[in-house]
Write a structure and sequence with these properties.
The chain has about 550 residues and is α/β, with parallel strands linked by helices. The chain has helices at about 40-45, 50-55, 90-100, 120-125, 185-205, 230-245, 260, 275-290, 295-300, 330-340, 355, 360-375, 440-445, 450-460, 465-470, and strands at about 20-25, 60, 105-110, 140, 160-165, 170, 205-210, 250, 275, 310-315, 320, 345, 350, 380, 470-475, 480-490, 490-500, 505-510, 520, 535-540, 545-550. The chain is globular. The structure holds 1-deoxynojirimycin and calcium ion.
Length: about 550
Amino acid sequence: MSLPMPVPTTARQPLWYKDAVIYQLHVKTFADSNGDGIGDFRGLSSKLNYLADLGVTCLWLLPMYPSPFRDDGYDIADYYSIHPSYGTLDDFREFLEAAHTRRLQVVTELVLNHTSDQHTWFKEARMSRNNPRRDWYVWSDTDDKYRGVRIIFIDTERSNWAWAPESKAYYWHRFFSHQPDLNYDNPAVREEMWNVMRFWLGLGVDGFRVDAVPYLIEREGTSCENLPETHDVVKFLRANLAEHFPDRMLLADANQPPELVRPYFSEGDEFHMAFHFPLMTRMFMAVRLEDRKPLVEVIERTPEIPETCQWGIFLRNHDELTLEMVSDVERAYMIDEYARDPASRIYLGIRRRLAPLLDGDRRRIELMNGLLMSMPGSPIIYYGDEIGMGDNIYLGDRNGVRTPMQWNGGWNAGFSTADPERLAQPQISNHQFCYQARKGESQTRADHSLLNWMRRLISVRQSTAVFSRGTTTFLMPANHRVLAYLRSLGREQVLCVYNLSNSAQAVELDLQSLAGAVPIEMFGRSLFPRIGELPYMLTLEPYAFFWFRLRRL
Ligand code: NOJ
Ligand code: CA
C-alpha cells in the first residue's frame, strides 16, 4: 500500500509523553460541523483553541475508523480510513496539522485483539475452512477449548466462543461475539498490524493507545492473558516502531494489577506507557474512606519502571469505572458507596462520570483532580470532566458517559445545529448537570468556574517537571485523614498535602530533613513559615489541598 503524505509536526521532544497532560475525547460527541448530529474532524478542529487554552498537550481520540458501531467503534471494519460520518482522510490530515501547530500531540486507537465481524477479513475467513484468510482468526470444532478463561462482558456474553454456521465451526472472542479475535500466532496478522501502524504514523500520528493488550494469544491450560507469546508480539511491533518512528509512543490498555502490567514495559522495549487501573479505584476509595491508606498502599505496591516509561493515570474514561481487578471487598465497598442505584452498574463496574460520582461537589472534584495532577504518571482528563459534565445511566451500555460535549447555552448546547432527535447521543437533561448548568465556552468567561480552575491546575503542574519526572516519598503523619508526599527531582522539591476528609484537619509533618526551606504555595505564590526542627503544623479545610514548592531562600 502506498503511504499518504505526512503531516508536518512540531518537533517531538524526547520522552514527550512523560511530560504530557492527555485529553481523551470522542470525535462523535465533541463538535458537529455539518449539522448531521454527529461530531466530526472539522468540528474538532474548530475546538482546538479551547483545548490548547485548557493546557493539555496531547489528544487521545476514541476509534475513528469505519465500523458498524456495535461497540462504539472498537469494532473496526477497515483500519485504513476514517468513518464517513467523521469526515475524510483529508479532514483528518487537516485536523492533525492544526493540532500540531498548537503543539498538541495526537494519539489514536490501535485495536489489535479483534476486528468487527463486518471486516472483510472476517467475512472471508468465516466462509470456508480453506479460505486463505481462515487462519487470521481463532477457530475450533468445539466450544470447550480454553475452558475456564473468564468472560469480560458478563452482562451480554455466555461464552468466549461463537458459532459460524457457514463453515460449521466456533470462533474465539474475548469481547462481544461480533468482535472475533485475530490470530497472532499467524505472522501475517502481525505484519498487517505493523502496516496499519505505519500508515497512521506515516501520516504524522504521535502514538497509539493499544486496546485490550493482554488477550492477543491463547494457550490451553492458561488464563489466555499476559502470555509470553503476547509479549513477543508487542516486542515485534515496538522494534519496528523503534526502527522507523523512534519518537512515537505506545500506551498499553492492560487492565491488570500493577505487577502484571510491569512486564509490558519490559526493559523499555515494549510499551512506553500503560494505564494504572488500581490507582484510579484507590483514589475514589481514599476519598470515601477519608483515609490515605488505600493510596499509600497502591503506590508502594507499584513496581519501578524503566526511565523511559511512564504510567498513564486517570479518574474516569469512556468505559465503566472498572472494578474487574480489585478484591471482592474493595468491589463491594465501591458499589456500596458509589453505585447504590443498580442502573448505574454495568459488567463489573460503574457507568458514571466524575462529577456525578462525587455528587457534583466542587471541593471533592478539585481534590480528586489535584491528586490526579500530582501523583506519579501522565494525567489523562476525560472530555467534559473539566466542566463537571453529568451522565445518563439509562442510555444503555456505556453510552451514558459518552454524551455530546456541552459548549454553550445555545441550541444543542452548541454541539450541533441538527434537530435534537438526530444527535449521535442525547444531551444530558438532568437539572444538576444539564448544559444550562455546565457548559465549556461560558465557563471560559467565569473567573471561578471549574474550567478556569482546571486550567490553573494544569498550568501549575506544568510549571515544573517535578510532577512528571520526580520521585514520590510519602510522609506518614499521625493523622490518617491527611495524605502527604514529597515529589523530588534533582534540587527541586514539591510537598503535596491533602485533606481527604469532609471535616477540617490539623496535621503535624516531620520535615526535619528539610529544615531551613521555605514552602511557597504554588497557586497563590504565598510564602509559608520557614521549616524548622520542630514538626511542621498545617491546618486544612474539608477536602482542601496544598502544593508547596520548597525553596532555600
Ligand atoms: C476496551 C475499550 O476501552 C472498550 O471500550 C471496548 O469495549 C473493549 N476494549 C473492546 O474493544
Ligand atoms: Ca457531522
